[in-house]
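Protocol step 4 of 6: structure prediction from sequence.
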Amino acid sequence: MPPRGVKKPKRKRQYKKVLSSIKKEGRYKGRQKEVAARIVNKTKRRKGESGTKGRRAA
């Protein structure tokens, strides 16, 4: 299940793909879902799909 802020189908697909990749590689034991959500949210923020730009406004 994607994180709360992920509503668009594109970001849901991205979350599932990132999560499966992390699990396949065996990385981030015990916090795989958290890391996948952070990656998706970071991408979303950089693309300007969220209300704030974050720390690194380009």
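Step 5 (inspection) to follow. DSSP finds two helices and no strands in the chain.
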